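Q&A log
Question type: sequence-to-structure
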Amino acid sequence: MGTKTADETGAATGAEATTDEEKVSVTKNADDASETGTEAADGTDADLAAENAENAENADDEEDAEDLADDDADLAADLAEAEGPSGVGQGAGAVVSVALGLVSLTGGWIGTVAAARETLVGQLQTSSTASVATQVKEVYGDAWATTALWAGFFALAALLTAVVVLARPAFGTPGTSQAPWIKSVAWAGVALGVIGLLLAVLKYSDALLGLPSTS
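Response status: OK
Response body:
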């Protein structure tokens, strides 16, 4: 009877030990699965967070690029608005100065009419008994002097216009540069004005192409 009781007791004890080991194994597997799921969940959350951060950074970069492009467009528009009218006016002034210089050298209709009028006045005011020198001076000399006078007026106007165009940037917006072609044309106007004014003075004073001698 004692032996049987011992065997039964050992069997029961072995069965209970086996049951406890199975419970420990199941619990350990459950804990491992839980840890694995937690790690997987943490990895997924980290990936999502990194992706969201990258997307937010890209969105910020795109917004910054758009803002920068808008700022550049506004700045270009402001510069065009500020420089456009002044550039057009200066260019027109430079072209006008060259035109006036050419008129002073080649003559214009107003100078021609003035010279013809002076000739007519000289004929009317000079008697037929006047000396040849007086008649030449009144009929031709005064007319030529009138032509030189009007040529000098046009040359002076060309010179002043060109100087104003060249000096305009100094009184405009600081840092605004003048177009090279405007400077070139304005300097051409200065040259033509100086030449025309010099020739007009020489002709008016009879130093150039004076009246012929009547003696």
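Response note: Helices lie at 2-106, 109-125, 132-167, 180-204.
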